[in-house]
Amino acid sequence: MIASILTGTAVALVAAWGALALWIRAPLPRGARTVLTLAWLASALAAIAALAWPAWHPAAYAFIAAVLALLIWWHTIRPSNDRNWLPEVARQTHGEVDGNQVTLHNIRNFDWRTRTDFTPHWETRHYALDALQSVDVALSYWNRPAIAHALVSFGFGHDNYVVFSVEIRRKAGDNFSEIGGFFKQYELSVIASTEEDSLRVRTNVRGEDGYLYRVHMPLDDARSLFLAYVDSANRLRDTPRFYHTLTANCSTIVFQMARRIVPGLPLDYRQLVSGYLPEYLYDLHVLEGADSVAQYRRLGRYTDRALASGTATEFSRDIRQQVPGIKPS
């Protein structure tokens, strides 16, 4: 009896996963995908019925064959760098390291007016590792308090910042879906950009809510983290990878790179629910200048300062006003 219950549960879980995989990724028109998904679910129900009625055993064998076919098809879905990408992810950041000097190619510096009206600029910039002075984590919220997009900004003095963002590489016609992120719907992308691009577009164009946190860490670790981003960007250019909602997203990738630099960082649920990263950083004692997470959040919220910022040249300075741990400039 227990064995039948466990087997039935396993069949139901495989059936649910397979139905979503077929519905989201099967390269068929909507009507054909509907028929195929319903046929898959019917086969799974027949396999479950075989647990109670021996006469249905052929249906169980048919479902096993269908599972094998599905897994073979699933294995053939491979990530690619050659698709019809949206303009903002059309190029891939990559870098060259020569001793103390790092050259980054394809830094995005778009002039955004609306979501669809913008002037594209892709730039090459040079950075000296010994000039790195600061690391800031920016969180951008658009819907729920538990979910935010995490970006890391490296400061090289004189309001010279470069932001790394780990995100989906969307194709023309793509709409973001957390569920789709479990089923190879998007490739993974590491984009370097200016703050006037990646931070400003989120608050001033997309209507998101932005927060900034100064992370205090040894400069050697900060340089290693910067180089880890460059290495990740180079790897993705050479070997594409799928985005995954849980295991390969903006916050988990940051954590994986940070663990390479600071071994033993504790696992924590807040690495998955990125909206609560401030609490995680506070518990790691890498935030300074405020007495509580609530105070960090209140003073670190830069949305209004971003909206009020008059020029791109002053944007980075404006959004840092009052942020705990950052000295007034």
From TrEMBL:
The chain crosses the membrane at residues 6-23, 35-53, 59-77. Pfam families: Lnb_N. The keyword Amino-acid biosynthesis does not apply. Residues 119-274 form the Lnb N-terminal periplasmic domain. The keyword Transmembrane helix applies. Keywords: Membrane, Transmembrane, Transmembrane helix. It comes from the Bacteria. This is Lnb N-terminal periplasmic domain-containing protein.
